[in-house]
Amino acid sequence: MLPGSRRLRVSGDSLSVRELLAVVESGVFYWRQRLDESEGVAREQAAAAIKELSRILDSLAQQLVAGREMVQITSRLPSTRVAPLACAICGRGNRANAKYCIACGSPMRLGEKSAPRPPPKLSLAVAARTDVGMARKVNEDTCYSGEFTTADGKIGTLLLVADGMGGHAAGEVASQLASETIKAELKESLSAGVPATDEDWHALMRQAALKANERIYTQSRAMGGRGMGTTLTMALVAGRRTHIAHVGDSRAYLINPGGVGEGGPWTQLTADHSLVARLVDIGQLTPEQARVHPQRNMIYRSLGTDPTVDVDTLSQALAPGDVLLLCSDGLEIHVEDAELSQIVIDEPNEAHACERLIALANQRGGKDNISVIIARMRT
After folding, report:
1. Largest Cα–Cα distance in the chain?
2. Which residues touch 82 (CB under 8 Å, ≥6 apart)?
3. How many domains, the chain?
4. What percentage of residues in the chain have a pLDDT greater than 70?
5. What is the pTM of this model?
6. How far apart are CA 156 and CA 317, in angstroms?
7. Are residue 105 and residue 146 in the same domain, yes or no?
8. How confident is the model over 47-64, as pLDDT tens digits?
9. Which structural domain range is residue 62 located in?
10. Which of 89, 100, 153, 258 has a 20 to 30 Å separation from 75 between CA atoms?
């Protein structure tokens, strides 16, 4: 949600520099009002925001002078695991040094005479924790993990983090409504049949998120709670794949000590729907500056603030040792990605890893509610 009436339209891969300029100007006006109305620390924060936004305004104006009307942004979810070695039997991608195919167990080296071995059986070990933090009086986060089963057996495990917003308990209501609605919608849909393809999973999860958006939006109007909403990051792990739906700036990470891509042992599976994330995309801010930026909490996409919402979806294959980590922004503003992944790798107990991450975030200020879910694929 951006201050004032200006809205930022993201179309495909492109973003209008003029629209972004108008949004930043609206932000300057908002912080000038705060400067006049505030005292002490709040006044210093407003002054810092105006200084930073003025620098951005100057840079955007220079781009317009140079004739740059549109910029490319990161609107798609990032690519994940690098799997360059294809199995000759089933075609599944594997890591470059793989000896056996992760999917069918066939030898990856030509001339290998050993018989194919079955892929290892995997189980999912899950822990979830949420904490009010050191600065807030109410925990507006909702954190959930649970299984979906039928008479024929287990379908999958749902992991969900929702970070509510709106104040006066509105955020708490919004995040709980999101969790309750999504669980009910998925239960009803899965009882009718399990999706056969990634696209079917995406449609199912997107529909559940849209139903939650509708309920929160209706409740917000009934309560007179304009601006009530919540982020949503959920992952449904079914067999060796996870299917993710995402709105807002809560996050999902994939972590593996052996590496999950060119960047190292972790990758962020979701893209933050926030103003500062877009400023990072176009080079106006560094990731380090974005972490402490005074407007880092301003998101342009959330459940419940508009009649409808765009939902990002993604499917990801899972390998032995993979860890899915979902968290609210109360964790990532204090704990950097490299630290986060190292704690998960070093601590084999999922519950203890959650507790260590929350303790570290609180030790560094705990400025927001902190929620974290860790789900590890074990053989």
Report:
1. 78
2. 95, 260, 261, 262
3. 3
4. 85
5. 0.74
6. 14
7. no
8. 888 888 888 888 888 878
9. 10-72
10. 258
